[in-house]
Fold:
Amino acid sequence: MTPSPAAVVPASGRPLRADARRNRQRILKAARRVFADSGLHSQMDDVAKRAKVGVGTVYRHFPTKEALLDALVREHFEEIAAFAREALERDDAWEAFCELMWRGAEYNANDLAFCEAIASSDKSSIIEEIGLRRTTGELIARAKAEGRMRADATEDDVAILMVGATAVMRLSTDAWRRYIDLMLDGLRAS
Structure:
């Protein structure tokens, strides 16, 4: 995955030096693992240890745990957006949509903090900014045009259903798979 523009240019607007850019990437990589394993209760000290940098370095790049978590959520959604762009290349929109839902769900299931973050706060602005909503909307429109998806399905329905799936992921290791099956059955044209 290529770093997002936000990963290369901090809020100050100045590009990072090469060493600072490497530290930032190490912090994000370490934080991804720490937060995925321990959820929102992860500590910045644990991220610093895993990244092999001082905690001050972590705070220089991310002044708060929330800022670090937002960067991780953005990266996570960017990866799902890449899945969605790949899905648009497929001829059968319904099958591509189903595959996208399964790939996204599998990816989400491996990240406890992501599941907790999207269940606890609205991340729709990130989804909009990275184009995931638009891409999913195109896929939905194509699946409807094929007559394979119910005519009243919307991008909002999919977003809400996926948030529900992540809530199930937080409660049970495998029950979410049944939830995805039920979700797709509910979106399928009758």
In short: The two ends are 38 Å apart (CA to CA). The domain at 70-187 is CATH 1.10.357.10 (Tetracycline Repressor; domain 2).
